[in-house]
Write a structure and sequence with these properties.
With about 280 residues, the chain is an alpha/beta fold. It has one domain (about 5-275): NAD(P)-binding Rossmann-like Domain (Rossmann fold). The chain contains 13 helices and seven strands. The chain has helices spanning about 5, 20-35, 60-70, 90-105, 130-140, 145-155, 160-180, 200, 205, 210-220, 225-235, 255-260, 265-275, and strands spanning about 15, 35-40, 50-55, 75-80, 110-120, 185-190, 245-250. A seven-stranded parallel beta sheet has the order 3-2-1-4-5-6-7, with helices on both faces. Strand 4, helix 4 and strand 5 (about 110-120) form a beta-alpha-beta unit. The protein is globular and about 50 Å long. The chain starts with a helix and ends in a 7-residue tail after the last helix.
Length: about 280
């Protein structure tokens, strides 16, 4: 296999969920430039060239099922990129709908041996290991309806927020590495630091202000969607064939420098993100 084969997407069939804008759009456009046949599913219109665009609402399992039925053939790579910042649909849009889609793709043999899946998570979900028991209690609800009911039942407890939705992704990726690998399928996620996307700009003070001191100290700029998309492209490529169950932090070193105290000003906030302060 040549280097171009390892890192390229020539002849591959790719699905990007949430690819209308941001990191998903960046991954979709890069995959297409590398030779992939690209389908984008999104509730928003897709305004750049793709091979197929399917309107789909992650908050509605019937919409997800109909979108899957509209797919052409099998898939070599799935990018689960959609997400929102808050609101009553947070868990449906950020995790429950994605899980429903992925598990239906697997159960209907749309993704088969040799394929790969990559989520967009966040450094905000790094607390999943410290809070694994609670996150696994949520994940034990096996379908869209039961998971949604669990969230409704716990909405007044104060721990279901953006960070919990991303912790669920990270734990799911870790837990599914084994059963999916037994089918020949890999699953990973990226955990981006601050990235200049429409969603981040809508929450600019919090999202783009995070780690500003570290960026000023190191000269590292805010990430671009293309940087995050490239990390996803790598994880779903044949070059990453030995990698599964991993949540890859893409943040110019802020998290690790802060956790270890190498960058001491970042340690207090990372203690929170790492779960030293519990969800509930």
């Amino acid at each position: 296999m040549t280097v171009a084969d390892l890192f390229g997407y020539a002849g591959k069939r790719v699905l990007v969920v949430g690819g209308a804008t941001g990191m998903g759009a960046a991954a979709a456009q890069t995959a297409r430039s590398l030779g992939a046949n690209v389908t984008v599913m999104d509730i928003a219109p897709v305004t750049y060239d793709v091979d197929k665009a399917i309107e789909m609402d992650l908050r509605d399992p019937q919409s997800i099922n109909a979108a899957i039925d509209d797919l052409d053939g099998t898939l070599d790579a799935v990018f689960s990129a959609a997400g929102i910042a808050d609101g009553p649909d947070l868990m449906r849009a950020n995790f429950i709908g994605h899980r429903h889609l992925i598990e239906r793709l697997v159960s209907t043999d749309r993704v088969q041996s040799g394929s790969a899946i990559c989520f967009i998570s966040s450094v905000a979900g790094m607390s999943w290991e410290e809070n694994l028991e609670q996150v696994q209690e949520f994940l034990a609800n096996p379908d869209f309806e039961s998971a949604d009911k669990w969230c409704v039942a716990h909405e007044s407890d104060g721990f279901i927020h953006y960070g919990f939705s991303k912790a669920a992704i990270n734990a799911y990726v870790a837990m599914e590495a084994y059963p999916l690998r037994a089918k020949g399928i890999r699953i990973n996620a990226i955990c981006p630091g601050p990235t200049d996307t429409p969603l981040a700009r809508a929450n600019e003070d919090l999202w783009l202000g995070f780690a500003k001191d570290y960026r000023e100290a190191t000269g590292a700029p805010v990430h671009t969607p293309e940087q995050q998309g490239n990390a996803m492209i790598f994880l779903n490529s044949d070059a990453a064939s030995g990698i599964s169950g991993v949540t890859l932090i893409v943040d110019s070193g802020h998290a690790m420098s802060s956790i270890t105290g190498s960058y001491a000003p970042g340690k207090p906030i990372m203690d929170i993100l790492m779960g030293k302060v519990k969800f509930g």
